[in-house]
Write the structure tokens for this entry.
Amino acid sequence: MMNGPERDRNKALGIVYRTHKQMVCSYIMKNSGSPEEAKDVYQEAMIAMYENVGQGKFKGDSAIGTYLYSIARFKWLNQIKKNSVRSSHHEKLETPEFQESPMTVIIEKEHKNAVLEVLTELGDSCKRLLVDTMYNNASMKEIVLKGEFSSEQIARNKKYKCLQKLKELIQNKPGLLQKLKGNE
């Protein structure tokens, strides 16, 4: 989206905008949002997605629609928390089922398998910690409550060490890095 001429970028952005607007706005309105709030959050998510793509933060590990939906969802959850609107309700928010193409499902499964392969080499403790914090979005407080760590700081330190070990493992396996990037 960002590599082509400006005309092509604008066209691609317009397609992404139109294709996913209804899904994101429906999600927000089903979860205590007004049509105006849905439109505002969607606009913010589009801007964030565009900037993230431009800065190289979006690696193409998922479909652009899934990525945009995720940004919008987190923006909405943050707005709910900030406004204290039904704050206990945010964990029960509806999540629509995605209708992804078979090819997307296969690619995502290959990526997950590659990630699991590396996580297995990290050891059980690091694997649990990274899966909980990165995939399950568990807070450090929640990790401490599970009983594996005596404080949030110790859990953060362990996560840092695990991430460093993960980087080292990926750097030592160039083929795996290509697999994670989607064989670009």
Remarks:
- Residues 6-92 form a domain with the Rna Polymerase Sigma Factor; Chain: A fold (CATH 1.10.1740).
- DSSP finds eight helices and no strands in the chain.
